[in-house]
Amino acid sequence: MSAHHSWGTPERRQRGLGTNHPDTLTSMHSVAQGTLLLGDPKEAASMFEQVAATMSERLGEEDERTLISVASLGAAYHKVGELQKAANTLRKALDGMRSHLGPSHPESLLTLNNLAIVYRVLDRHAESLQLYEESYSLLRKKLGADHPQTIHSLHEMGHGYEHTGRIAEAIQILKKTYEFRTDRLGESHCDTLQWSSCLIAAYFANGELLKAEPLLQSALRARKNELGVDHPETLGTTRGYVDTLIQNGKFSEAKDVCNEWIAVLDRSKDQAQYGRAQTTFAEILLNLKENDRALDAVSIAMGIEELDRVQRLRASSIKGAALAAKGRTDAAEALLVGSAEELRDMIPSMGIVFRWHAPKACERVIAAYKAWGNSEEVEIWEKRLLDLKEQIEDLRDRT
Question: Given 3.90.1170.50, 1.10.357.10, 1.25.40.10, 1.10.275.10, which CATH number is that of 1-122?
Answer without folding.
Answer: 1.25.40.10
